[in-house]
């Protein structure tokens, strides 16, 4: 998996010391893989309902916009828990914290699978948000505890690759399982995947005693710096724009493009494959030019969203645009992680906590705003709204991206 290649290394003060403790001197790569797997499951679960919104709305007897709250709820919760859990758990064994969050994720999916109404579903999704916020922030930092210093960047790339992969395959996987076995089964599958990841953590993750707590003062100090603030603003705008439109991609394909269920699933699967390809391509380029990756990706997201409306009647064009959208957004998480690490190299965990909070708030706000626009004015206007926000994320930052790590 590709991660934030080219990101600035952690400082001596912020990077935990690697100790062999009976492990292989090359590092415990199975432990790294277990953390990456859990990151994948968390992000997959968070975005899974996007491909299932029409079915969830019908099954829980709510409007499409109201069903969009199942995406909003975990995003808002994760935004709050990312910094709070990172600070609160600073003196706890990271192994116990990560395993507890993994168990919470499995439980939330089980509850979602049998939710009788939207209230119970939202409770389950709030529980998931706590897992996402804590695990996503702390997961990448664990890499430095599992491998020698010379391999930290590679281990971090594996873990953040799980995040990027979960982002791009969630929608097509949800649509595929939902079509073949129903939306509740999709959550059962997610619960099973969380249990597999939990077992891997229990088997492979060693004890990770505390090495220093992140303080609130460090978060505020990072936020006061110009570079991180610009990076966080760019993150907020692209997530707002993307999720204002992306949340309603399945209804677009069904209602405007008039794709049958099989065509919708196939198109979303291609979207996921394109997203993975975009992630790998970004990893190969981003060390040379973060600006090229970020600007190209955000412009393509905006272009695809705005062009889908007038071209809804041309099926080949719709597929091409969805593929372009998937490939473009596949590069976005990697670009944002690289950006925040380059502008906050002395406090990487602080920068990541702020990035998670910002992106999750923007995700939730984008989905909520998109739902309001879709309910009030239709999917076409919702896509145009999302495209405009995505373009705004480019304009203020063209000359400010740190291309040299």
Notes on the structure:
The chain is mostly helical. The protein has a single domain, classed as Up-down Bundle (Growth Hormone, Chain: A), CATH 1.20.1250.20. Helices cover 76% and strands 0% of the residues. It contains 16 helices and no strands. Helix 4 packs across helix 6, helix 5 (94-113) packs antiparallel against helix 8 (183-204) and helix 6 (118-146) packs antiparallel against helix 7 (152-181).
CATH-defined architecture: Up-down Bundle
Count up the helices. 16
Structural class determined from secondary elements: mainly alpha
CATH superfamily: MFS general substrate transporter like domains
CATH class: Mainly Alpha
Rounded radius of gyration (Å):
20 Å
- Stretches where pLDDT is under 50 for at least 5 consecutive residues are 1-23
Q: Key features?
A:
405 residues, mainly alpha, Growth Hormone, Chain: A, 76% helix
